[in-house]
Every structure is written in structure tokens, then in C-alpha cells.
Amino acid sequence: MKLLATPPDLNKIARPNWIEINLDALCNNIQFIRSQIPASTKILLPVKADSYGHGSLACSFAAKFGGADYLGVAHISEGMLLRQYGMDLPILVLGPCTPSDFAYFVEYQLTAAITDIRTAMAFDQFLGETGTECKAHLAIDTGMNRYGFDAEDFNNIRAALSLKHLKFEGMFTHLATADMPGNPKTEIQIQRFTRLVDVLEAEGLRPEICHCSSSAGTLTHPESHFDMVRPGLTLYGYNCMGAIPTTLPIKPVMKIKSTIRHVHDVKPGETVSYGGYWAAQQLTRIATIAIGYGDGYLRGEYNKGFVFIRGQLCPILGRVCMDATMVDVSHIPDVQVGETVDVVNGELDFRISMESVAEEHHTIPYEITSRVARRLYRKYYWKNRLVRWDYLKEEFGVKDFKEYPLR
Ligand SMILES: Cc1ncc(COP(=O)(O)O)c(C=O)c1O
Predict the structure, then answer these.
(1) Dmax of the chain from CA atoms?
(2) What are the phi and psi torsion angles at 99 (to 5°)?
């Protein structure tokens, strides 16, 4: 086999499955959230898990352009990556930090979430010994019971906020049930947080940026807005209240596309795909499309859901395979190999929206977007044009950083 001396740029090789990331939609959604909150309230875009699978570099830079004030990641490595490419918005690492992270927080100018007093004191000591500084937000547990200081642990909260070197710019909590209308827990959590904010205010210890709400809280509980909101799902354009069409002027950021690879007919009595869970009742024209669970498309259910071809719904037949899914195209018999398939595109039809596809599989839109596999190519819409990453990099002034630091 004769290989080229330099490997080809695999990004230039056509791929049968891809996602389209509409960065204009992201900016539109930022503007919508902006219209729902007081002018002084900041917007944090969660870009953790590679922006829920939408691509954290492109989304972060577009969000900066679109008016986001802060970015949120889960792990320090995600924040470091953004800094390495030149992102200069403040970045809050929402997950707990450990002593081995301290130096990186300082070097990469990331904001740390502090979840317990031991870490707070160890970090403060580190900063004192090294003569350095770091911004932090105090994580408060008001009922999610995931991590953070207990909202009534006033002694430790005061002790942390009074530390000399760790600069507590903010304090936050996370609501567990805001997407369940009428669930009393949401109000209880907001009340606990509000009480703490008031106590600290009275004592002159209130951090400048108090925040509480992700998407559902932001939209349904204005009293939870405080100084910043963190609405991930809404900013990515999906309905946080479930698979019901939303009247909000938000637009989905991700579309998932595939290609027809094969078209054939199956006779009555023949079954399709692993396990033979779908059997033809009559002669049926099948299109085999290139997407499968190896691309992140969910396998859980069989004979469930649709894709869209030439503006028509085509039911999925049998099990989704690793690299293929079979669909019924009997009603559009002249479909051709190579044609584009809309796998997820809420703008075309709600039945193939991210919310509906998630519900078919008893999951949530977050899981579908964040599982999209790396082998799918990303195309970006920016200023109403479909562009490639190379163009965006120039447009956003993203630093050329050759080494991909995470393996
Ligand atoms: C701490 C925190 N803030 C904000 C968000 C964003 O939530 P949503 O995407 O539901 O708005 C999350 C999501 O997991 C989170 O863990």
C-alpha cells in the first residue's frame, strides 16, 4: 500500500454523518435570555461536556460575540483547553476542585467552585505560600445533595468567605426540580439560598455574583435570577420542560444529518436488522442510512422514531445498528443513494426534534447532544452562512494550538 508522505486532512474527507451547529441560533437564544432577566444579571453559558456536544470552542467564541458574560465547565481540563485557544471570558469550573488543581487554577486564571471547608483552607494556604491569587465561587447545597456547603452551615460558610487569599467573587447553588412545575422543592431551595444571601449581606460577607438558576429556574422562577443565570439547555435551543412544542423564540443549535447508503426492497415476511424485530407485511422499500449507535444515535428502542427524507417522515425499522439504520421509504420510492437525511431537526418537524427523539428513548436532549460521536463532522452556521472550522477560527481569532492536549 502506498500512503501519502503527509497524512491527508481527514476533516476534508466527506463523511456520511455530520452535525450542523447553528451559532446564529446560539446568539439568538442568548438575546432571548437577556430579554428575560434584569439588565444587571449576567449570563453564564455552560460549555461543559464539549458544550453538551455542540463544540465548546465554537460555542464559547460565538457566545462571547453574542453577549455571554461567563462560561461554565465541569472539569478544570475543559477550562484549560479553552484558555489554550485564547478564550478570555471568565470561566467557572463548576465541579469540585482538588489540591492537585490549585496551581492550574492560578496559571489558567480559572474560577474555582469551592465545595467544602477543607479544600477552601488548603487552597487559601497554597495561595498564601505561593503569593498568588485565585477567584472562587462558594458552592452551596440547598437540597440537590450533590456537593457544596450545607446552606445552614453558617460557621464554615463564614470561615470560607473570610479567608485572606481566596477571593470569593461568587456563591451558587443548583436546583433539582425546577423543570417539574409545581414541585415545592424548587421554592424551598430558592428560599434557603435567599436566606443565606440575606444573612451574608447583613454581615457584609455577600459575594458579588450570587447565582442559582439553570434553564428551568431562569424561565419559571424570576426570583431565582440573582446576579447571574446558567441556562444551558435553553441557550442550546431545546425545551427544558420536556417534549412539548415551546412558544419561546429559541432555536435549536444542533441538527443531526446522515446520508442514504443503500436502497432495496424486502418481501413480505422478511425481517430487518438484528433480532428480526420488524417484519414486512408487504413489499417494502428500505433505505439504509449511515447513522448508528457508533455515532451516538440511541439504540435503546426498536421500531421507534422517524427520520426525514425529502420533507417526509420515514419510520425507523427494527434495531439501530452501530453504523446503519434502516428506514421505510415505500412512500418515496425514487429516493437515491447519497441523498441527505434529517435525523434530528426540530425546525423541520417536531417529531424529529431533539426533545421528541429523546423522549422516544426515555432520555433527555442533553444525553443525545453530548453523546454525538467524534467521527461526525461539524459544520457551522455563522452569520447565515455554512462555514468550516478554519473560517471560524479566523473569524473568532482562535489561537492556533496544534497539540490537542486531551487524550
Ligand atoms: C451547576 C449547573 N449549572 C447549570 C447547568 C445547566 O443546566 P441546564 O442545561 O438545565 O440549563 C447545569 C447542568 O447540568 C449544572 O450542573
Answers:
(1) 78
(2) -55, -30
Q: Give 186-217 pLDDT, tens digit per residue.
A: 999 999 999 999 999 999 999 999 999 999 99
Give the single-character DSSP code of 204.
Answer: T
Summarize pLDDT for 147-163 with one digit per residue, the tens: 999 999 999 999 999 99
Active site residue 12: no
Looking at residue 151, the DSSP 8-state letter turns out to be T
Residue 317: strand, helix, or coil: strand
Residues facing 263 on adjacent strands: 287
Characterise 37 by phi-psi region: left (phi > 0), alpha (psi -120 to 50), beta (else).
beta
Which of the 8 DSSP states describes residue 224? G
What the chain holds in terms of domains, given with CATH numbers, is: 23-235 (3.20.20.10), 254-352 (2.40.37.10)
User: For residues 294 and 344, what is the distance between their CA atoms, to the nearest angstrom?
Assistant: 16
How far, in Å, from the CA of 76 to the mean position of ligand 1? Answer: 16
- Counting ligand 1 atoms within 8 A of each CB, the residue from 174, 177, 212, 355 with the most, and so the one to mutate, is 174
pTM for the model stands at: 0.95
Q: What is the Cα–Cα distance from 208 to 297, expressed in whole angstroms?
A: 42
Please provide residue 59's backbone torsions phi and psi, each rounded to the nearest 5 degrees. Answer: -65, -40
